[in-house]
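Section 5.1 Outputs to date
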Amino acid sequence: MYLSVKKEQIIEGLQKAASIIPSKAGAAYLRSIWLQAVKKDGRDTLTIMSTDVNIEFTGNYPCTVKEEGTAGVNGRAFVELLRRLPGGDITLRLDEESHILSVEQGRRSYKLPTVDPVWFQPLPAFPEEGAVLWSGDFFQDIIDRVAFCISDDDSAEGLACLYAKAGDSGKVDVCGLNGHQFAMVRFINDELAALLPENGLLIQKKYVNELRKWLSNDEVMLNISERRFHIRTGSGNETLSIPRSANFSYPDHQSFLARLEAGTSQLDVDRRETLNALDRLLIFNNDSDRCTYFRFSPQEVELSAQGQETGSATEHLEGNFKGDLELIAFPTRSLMDILGHFQSASLHYTFTGSEGPCGITGSEDTEYTVILMPMKIAESSYYTED
């Protein structure tokens, strides 16, 4: 292998490749970034590949190939070296006998050991048939709006996954659930709805986080195979592949939404004023008293908090309340986190009871719903999560 390439054209791809390399993997080929120089169809290409067995990354970048070949190098060391070099042309040359990769730039020269090429296994190409073009920034926004509700416990199986399910008329529901909170974004995309499996798509949160870091504002191509979820940049240069959790099941999220239809009390209140009030009331929470109480009257809502060691606080917000609910309590930090994912100036709350699920929506947050379970109010004025 012998090629020259500009640092500016590959450094971002190298950093993406290095981000998925396991830091303590025993196998050298998993700690490696694989470089493949190819001349094909009149184009010279440097292909960069990495995997941790589960996540697979492939990037193709223009270069000048003098000799084709493949080399595997310690991924983190190689990327750190190139990251610290100045911009401009870099020459990569593999000595087949010594298995040493030379990295040269001007009067600078470095030598890196390579992995035995017998370990090299080409990563599968992006499946073209049936692929769907989608907006990268819209995908980012959906992940941001539901990922905070996904359980961090890998043993929770389906609850530790992002869930996407197609409905009628091209509707797609993307959901996150952790047992106490539920978030769903609904949108219409006929092509994506047709692509999704009948029982839905499940992707574990740890892979969703990697996907989120990889996405940009550019368009992307999506596809789904039997075992994997594939995404490629619109330019076709970079591909990421992550596992599907096909063996997990997911609760019927429609039943959560149906429970809100039985809501007997409604509240409309300013989102920003509520957030600011909760931020101040949080000062009066502690490990034993983690909630804010909402006490309702037709034209306002009273927010209060108390703690044995911190004292008590009360604030009044203008609002429009209808119903017979008198008092409800929510975990302060959780509610603040939820409100931070909305854009609407005013939010609408649907209450099903003092201990039943509460739905939150906003007119400017089209088809976005979050459901939060309240805290159980005990006679002793101490609060435990139901």
